[in-house]
Amino acid sequence: MRRILFYVAAITLIATSCTNNQSTSANLSKVDTRPDSSASWAILPFTKIDSVNPVLIPGTGSFIDPVLKKEVLWEEKDVFNPAIVNRNGKIYMLYRAQDKTGKPAGTSRIGLAVSTDAVHFSRMPQPVFYPENDAFKKLEWEGGCEDPRVVADSLGTYYMTYTAFDGTTARLLVATSTDLMHWKKYGSVFKKAYNGKYADKWSKSGSIVSTYKNGEPVATKINGKYWMYWGDTQIWSATSDDLINWAPVEMKEGEKPPVPLRSQALNMPQLKIVLPTREGKFDSDLVESGPPAILTDKGILLIFNSRNVPAIGDKSLPEGTYAASQALFDKNDPTKILKRLDKWFIKPQKPYELSGQVNQVCFVEGLTEFKNKWYLYYGTADSKIAVASSPAK
What we know:
Layout: H1 22-28, E1 47-48, E2 63-65, E3 70-72, E4 78-87, E5 90-98, E6 108-115, E7 122-123, H2 137-140, E8 144-152, E9 158-165, E10 170-177, E11 184-188, E12 207-208, E13 210-213, E14 216-219, E15 226-230, E16 236-240, E17 246-248, E18 286-289, E19 294-295, E20 300-307, E21 322-329, E22 337-340, H3 351-354, E23 362-370, E24 373-380, E25 384-391
């Protein structure tokens, strides 16, 4: 999730004119946004499991930090934004945790918790992924390692996309593991694409298109390539041959962006926006990838996060509300959006969602199917972790 202050209504929109956007706007106008009750392609409804929420709160775990060379209470401030792995009948949660000492808002590390019923978790006392004195320290210190998303490949290796934050710039990185405990870092997912021109740009939230097998997302190629949705301003896409090195999809010659470019998108104007913000709606200010996207018979289902500014968006939602929704993309062309819910399906309502490090936040990031139910895990107010469920169809 972005750290910058919420946009105010007076932000200037820098963009090509509406005339220049005619062809792209025409394509977007074909997107099916019929009432959500007719959205058989979506996973609905999700019900918050109030009897157990929040399922994870800040803890008392400590470890000797390799950079500081002293004991750190690594999860005493906040825990949020988890990835989920369904392995051998157990649910593994890789979650972002913050201490109280790092800058600017606490150093983030990734912890591991385990459940046998998907709602009650036991956590490991020490983090399993964190900044070290290695080749990636300059990218990860001292903001830390944030917001993991995890998929497996067909051989059982896990690939984690995560955000490295050096205190100024967020960058999308990747690491692998075979046991969820020991990880190998590879650096920027974009370091080899286009001579590395996107490697040092602001990038976050890598949602790799997967087939969910026994509840676990397994990365699946489409037309010979792996695909990923990413971004936390607009949502873009990227392709890969190996799940390590990714190439962002750029616009074709003569193609225009579907919405005015602002914020981080201004630094990457060549990129093809596949899921734009929408004026007048709950997703007016930004959209951001959620859990690993699901490859289905009907298309690619992407659950995404959004932020609202009432002056340009949904006036019924408070300033800065993070809510989540769903969109469907063509399974043969992952850049082509087919359907999109017209409303959010989960929004902040509970006290622990309304107030915290960042107020008014439900940020979805982990998903699994377990015992005939979908379980969706989300960060609440950047402070705790909660879960909602939906019957599996």
